[in-house]
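Researcher: I'd like a structural prediction for the single chain below. Treat it as a standalone chain; there are no partners to consider.
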Amino acid sequence: MVEAAPNKVDLARLLTASGVSATPWYAVIDAAQDSGSPARAAGSGLQTQSLYEGSLGQQLDDVAPHLVSLTLRDEFAGWLFDNWGGNHGILLQARAGFQEIRRHLRKFLMVKDEAGKKYRFRYYDPRVLRTFLPACSPAEARDFFGPVACYYAANRDGRSALAFSWRSRGVAMREIPEGEPAG
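Model: Treating it as a single chain, here is the predicted structure.
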């Protein structure tokens, strides 16, 4: 019996219709989900760099989050969209260059609980981001967004995207469903 090919989402079309198109696109990919994804991005000629640094960064490179500068129509974006439901990472649009975005995102890799204990924060996992952002206070959201105009994460079904943007009252979320023009 031949398995039917999964329906592919034309996420590039949906996101282009929904986003701040003049703003550069980035992905934060999770090498823990696919250790070959950073090399795949670099092999496509895209700027990519781990969010971790130093000896820890070298030790964790094959499971670390990596920032990738991309366009929605490049080869790597095609791979990411084909695997959109696989929790490989998130997309974002930002009003800043690669190194400024990397510095900003690095600030959130570790968090403390009320007792002061530190934890790695995997916000770049779509399952975490889509739970975390709606729960943020307006001040937390403002800090987390910084120069980022919009974060995008796969919805639970993996066939659509959730777009998160910061408003003065907190996080605004909207779904970009498959097959419907966004906007």
